């Protein structure tokens, strides 16, 4: 199965998951700059794919970030995002 990633490009779901996990680890260990929206989006992908530990680690990282009002409007607060992922 392929998914769209922008600019007319696609990648398999498996590749997307590998890239998501690598990106998440880079954000968590500080080798990549953390953007609130990216952290929340990756967290959702990993949670849906069953990688609960990495998703939880990303939520912990998100708690240390200071999102802008626009990011909060777009992605919600940590608690809202956490509840949406769990289907609450």
Topology overview:
Elements: E1 2-6, E2 9-12, H1 13-28, H2 36-48, H3 52-64, H4 69-75, H5 78-86
Antiparallel strand pairs: 1-2
Helix pairs in contact: 1-2, 1-3, 2-3
Number of strand segments: 2
User: What class, by secondary structure content?
Assistant: mainly alpha
Rounded to the nearest angstrom, the radius of gyration is: 13 Å
Strand order of the largest sheet: 1-2
**Cα shape:** globular
Mean pLDDT: 82
Explained architecture:
The protein is mainly α and 88 residues long. It has helices spanning 13-28, 36-48, 52-64, 69-75, 78-86, and strands at 2-6, 9-12. The protein has a two-stranded antiparallel ribbon with strand order 1-2. A hairpin with a 2-residue loop joins strand 1 and strand 2.
Please name the defining characteristics of this protein.
mainly alpha, two-stranded antiparallel ribbon, single chain, about 90 residues, 5 helices, globular
